[in-house]
Amino acid sequence: MSHHPSPQKLPLAPKALDSPDYETWTREELIVRLKELTGSPNTLQTTTPTPTFPSQPPALPLVSSSLAPSPPSTSGSKKRLPEDSKPKREFDFAAYPTRKIALKFSYAGAGYGGLAWQAMPTPLPTVEGVLFAALAKARLVDPDGGLEGCGWERCGRTDRGVSAAGQVVSLYVRSSHRRSAVPAKASGDAPDGFLNDDDDAHTPPTVPERDIRYLHMLNAILPPSIRVYAWAPVASSFSARFSCRTRHYKYFFSARSLDVDAMRDGAARLVGEHDFRNLCKLDPAKQLTSFRRRILRADISHIAVGGGGGSTHMHVLDLVGSAFLYNQVRHIMAVLLLIGARLEVPGVISALLNADPAAPPAVLEGEPPPPCVTCKPEYQMADALPLVLWECTYAAEDAQWRADDAGSDGGSVGLYSQLVGLAERAQVEATLAEHFLAAAAPLHELAARGTGSMLTREANGKERGPWDVPLGGGTTRREGNYVPLLNRKRLDSVEVVNERWRTRRKGKEST
């Protein structure tokens, strides 16, 4: 039998009146007492709480708690040191070279406060904040440098609630190879401290046979509402924003009681280069003086949900252009919905585009010249939910998109299966909603018949209301007396708004 030395006695605090004298107890008695206090080994419960994760990512500036490591497991017989006593191993980013890449990803905007990261706390997390946190946790970027430290650039900014199917960001990330003795050639376009693997700043670098599985790493950390599905090695001079050739937006809507042909007439008037100051939101902080943008495509088509040929009311507006103004697509869609409801005529688009007296638009055959509208009328833009940044296009030589591990599926099968599951769940929810509507229709026959009344309404709303003005996304606004757009109160001109902002800024700087 081995001999156990007596434990060293330490000064004790004064004992409580009813406290047992454990110093006089034998080892076996102490073990029995511990089992009584903690329970038997079969019923022993850990005091470590089970982590719970919110359905949406928490709103933190950069690092989300939903991306933090889970608490250590208490199962097994191995003893674990307290977290505070564990030596923290710092990751040496300087030991690795960097490369510039572009990431293509999708996100459902309903759970986020917009794409762009915000310096101040926001009620909902931002897409960039969650994506950067995933990149930092995967040790692809240094979290201390923030967005500027990795040369972060986005293609197009989307507002709160707006989704994207083909958003693109470009940045410098850690490469898979250790630094060689000969340093890579630095490009003048790269941020300080970053070297690209390519020798030519304007030529995309080649991909090694075995590179980091960027998609697998990021999608394992990101929430299901954000999926990175392609990446491309790009040159140091590549810019997700300025290298983009065209941007394609889609706006989905139900045409259950809308005149789609009239909406198509209005959309066709958007094609070409026009002054869109009456079809956007003015942002005086940008001090814009030119609102001319070119629309390459504007058409409305029917959607067969799920790829089948079943009857559906869903349609989509496809809008393609080289660049867009602030909230331009949602303003365009708001007016098109008014045209579809026969509250406005398609010619109102021509009038709103006639904002510059020095450059009047072309007059359509058989129509009178549209009135000049130099100041924007008051109206509410369309709902954000159905708007999607569908695609950002680049020259083939600038960005060659790929999945993980060029030449193999690289885990793309698993990613695609996830997207299929998300689509099927959304279709189930849509089917349930349609069946709920069908179940209620027999008991609300009069209301059901009234949903088609807009198709027989006289244009410009000359009939008596009240009107349910469509706003997109299944939302409406009830108006007792509809006022045509061109008869409404006008907002201040661009020049007045810009000057007022400059005056206020000078006043703040002088105080």
Automatic annotation (TrEMBL):
<dbReference type="InterPro" id="IPR020097">
    <property type="entry name" value="PsdUridine_synth_TruA_a/b_dom"/>
</dbReference>
<comment type="similarity">
    <text>Belongs to the tRNA pseudouridine synthase TruA family.</text>
</comment>
<keyword id="KW-0413">Isomerase</keyword>
<feature type="compositionally biased region" description="Pro residues">
    <location>
        <begin position="51"/>
        <end position="60"/>
    </location>
</feature>
<feature type="compositionally biased region" description="Low complexity">
    <location>
        <begin position="37"/>
        <end position="50"/>
    </location>
</feature>
<dbReference type="GO" id="GO:0005634">
    <property type="term" value="C:nucleus"/>
</dbReference>
<dbReference type="InterPro" id="IPR020095">
    <property type="entry name" value="PsdUridine_synth_TruA_C"/>
</dbReference>
<feature type="domain" description="Pseudouridine synthase I TruA alpha/beta">
    <location>
        <begin position="267"/>
        <end position="394"/>
    </location>
</feature>
<keyword id="KW-0819">tRNA processing</keyword>
<dbReference type="InterPro" id="IPR001406">
    <property type="entry name" value="PsdUridine_synth_TruA"/>
</dbReference>
<dbReference type="GO" id="GO:0003723">
    <property type="term" value="F:RNA binding"/>
</dbReference>
<dbReference type="Pfam" id="PF01416">
    <property type="entry name" value="PseudoU_synth_1"/>
</dbReference>
<dbReference type="GO" id="GO:0031119">
    <property type="term" value="P:tRNA pseudouridine synthesis"/>
</dbReference>
<dbReference type="InterPro" id="IPR020094">
    <property type="entry name" value="TruA/RsuA/RluB/E/F_N"/>
</dbReference>
<feature type="region of interest" description="Disordered">
    <location>
        <begin position="182"/>
        <end position="206"/>
    </location>
</feature>
<protein>
    <submittedName>
        <fullName>tRNA pseudouridine synthase</fullName>
    </submittedName>
</protein>
<dbReference type="GO" id="GO:1990481">
    <property type="term" value="P:mRNA pseudouridine synthesis"/>
</dbReference>
<feature type="region of interest" description="Disordered">
    <location>
        <begin position="35"/>
        <end position="88"/>
    </location>
</feature>
<dbReference type="GO" id="GO:0005737">
    <property type="term" value="C:cytoplasm"/>
</dbReference>
<dbReference type="InterPro" id="IPR020103">
    <property type="entry name" value="PsdUridine_synth_cat_dom_sf"/>
</dbReference>
<dbReference type="GO" id="GO:0009982">
    <property type="term" value="F:pseudouridine synthase activity"/>
</dbReference>
